[in-house]
Every structure is written in C-alpha cells, then in structure tokens.
Amino acid sequence: MVSVSIAMATYNGERFIREQLESLAAQQHLPSELVVSDDGSADNTLAIVAQFATAAPFPVYIHQNKNRLGYRANFMRAASLCTSDLIAFCDQDDVWSPRKLAVCIRAFEDPAVLLAYHNATVVTEAGVPLGNVGVFGSAPLTAPLASCALGFRPPGFTEVFRRPALDLTDFWEMSRDWLDPTQPMAHDQWVFFVSSVFGHTAYIHEPLAWYRQHASNLYGWTRDLRAWTRPIRFSRSVHAALSSKAGRLKRMEEYAGRFARILEEAAPALAGDWQDRAASGATKYRNLAELFETRRRIYTTRSFRGRLSAVRQIVSRRGYRTGWAGWGVGRKALAFDLCVGVSVGHLL
C-alpha cells in the first residue's frame, strides 16, 4: 500500500480546521500520518487537533514552533517531519474530496513522476462554488525541464510529491518568492520548481478539493486570474504595462538567475540523472536570465538603434519562441517590443 503523509501548517485556524480534519479522516486512501506544525496559534486550533487525534484513523503528530516561522518555513518544517514515500501539503481551511489521495497516488505508478497536482473548486466561506483553479492546469504529464517554472506554480494544497523533492532544501533560502522578494520562495513554489527540473509533473483535471475563500486567506483566488474576460480601460492598462515593464523584467532576470545559481551549486552533490538535469536546468535558467536582461534594454536604452539591436539579439537567439513551454518570452512579447518598446521605450 502506498504510504502518504499529510503536512499541515497551522496558525489560528479554529474557524475551519475541524471540517478539514474530518475530510482527511474520510479519505478513501487513508494517509499513514498527519504531521501538524503549529506556528504559535493563540486560539483553539491545537485543542481541536488534539481532540481529533484521539479518534483519528491514522497517527497525528503535533509540533509547536518555539518561535514564529511564517507560513513558508512552517510548511517546509511540516514536510521535513513527514516519514512517508509521498507527501501532501494541506491547508487548515479547505476541504478535501474523499477521492483526493486515492486519485493522486495513481499518478505515481509512473516512477518518473515526482509531483502531481490537481484542479480544485473555489468556494465561499459557506461552501458556495465560485469557480475553479483550472487556470493553473497544464498537460497531463510534463517531462523534466520541458517548461520553465518561472512565475508559475500550482497552489500548495493541490500538490502531492515524492520525498526526494525535498532533497535540495538546504538551498531553499537562496531562493526568492515571486510575490515577496524579501522572502524565500513559498513551499509550493519551491517544491514545484525542484520537481519540474528533476522529474515528471502530472496534472489531474478532476477537482479534488474545495478551496475556501475568506477574510483571513493569506493568498486567494480572484476572478482577476481570468482578467481577459473582463473589460479593461485601454489607457489605464497600457500605462500600467509601460510603467512597470523594466522593473518587472529586472525581477524576472534576477529570479531566473537565482534558479540558475541554486542548480549550479547543487549539481556537484548530486549523482546520475539528477546531476545532469541540474546542469541542464542551470544552463536553461541562465539563458533565460540573459534573455530578460536583453529585453530589459529595450525599455531602458535611449538610443533607437540600441533598442532595435536588443530585439534583433533576442530574435537571433530564438528568444521569442513560445513562452515558458519553449523557454522563451513568447510571440506576444515580440509584437509588444516592436510596436511599443522600440518606438517609445526611451520615454519610460
């Protein structure tokens, strides 16, 4: 029987955690353990978990942090304390389908799969459906380094992964979170990055959890994820795009560069396929960082000839190939750079 640990990070979650715990106990494929890492809850969270542990159909281990870690490090700690072959991240305020673990573990019948993630139904506090997170979906199976993990990651509560995805945790603090560059990557960003470099990732279209939205969500789903369906005032959207372009490209350059450095430093300690993939991944991310640096010059160079030269350099390197899947910046970027960047980039 496949062994699966659940890694749950908690903090003042008394409002919804009981329902989540009940959904874990109702799994068709029961986990081998629930590991709870609490970050200093001041409410009844721990009492609820302790009460659940007395009758749970699997062992429940509760760990209390001496000092506040923040949700990123708290999830990483919870995962590090798990002992099973597979690990599933678990938020304290969602509800899992009884089929979740049973369906997810099927993906790991393929020994090359390092991580699986699934769709989920977005609901209100009261459980009223709002939509789904299928916007994060991808092909059913993606090979190592077949696409770039830059700026993309599925929500953590949808991820189930093999323990080796944690093998590079010593390098985690070198990373930077896309939403908060002062912090290391979120747990789900990090594990997805590692998994996309070193193994296959599997996507399951079936919604296998209810993703609850409430006032205390650290990050949540909004209809802005589907912003292309909403009317946007042209002048405001263009102004925002132009004014943030150089800064955004700088961040992406730094982000890709950090991925490259992490893989470069990790490679010597790895062996076999993992060492080869680390080296290949480092090269790909380094090239991507150079593409962003070149593209940024289109929006910072005063010379028309200099801006046009930057576009030509990207074209010569086939840098405008199809988006993340092709380790390029995308064909839309070419149109934008030619029509806007070359023309008025010097005014930004």
Give the second-level CATH assignment, the architecture of the largest domain: Alpha-Beta Complex
CATH homologous superfamily designation of the largest domain: Spore Coat Polysaccharide Biosynthesis Protein SpsA, Chain A
The CATH class of the largest domain is identified as: Alpha Beta
The residue fraction in helices comes out at 25-40%
Look up the CATH topology of the largest domain: Spore Coat Polysaccharide Biosynthesis Protein SpsA, Chain A
Shape: elongated
What distance lies between the first and last C-alpha atoms, to the nearest angstrom? 59 Å
Largest sheet: 10 strands, mixed
N to C succession of SSEs: EHEHEHEEHEEEEHEHHHH
**Average residue pLDDT:** 89
Structural class: alpha/beta
Q: What is the CA-atom radius of gyration, in angstroms?
A: 22 Å
Beta-strand content estimate = 15-25%
Number of strands: 10
* Number of spatially distinct domains: 2
Sequence stretches where pLDDT stays below 50 over 5 or more residues: 223-242
Q: What's the quick description here?
A:
The protein is α/β, with parallel strands linked by helices and 348 residues long.
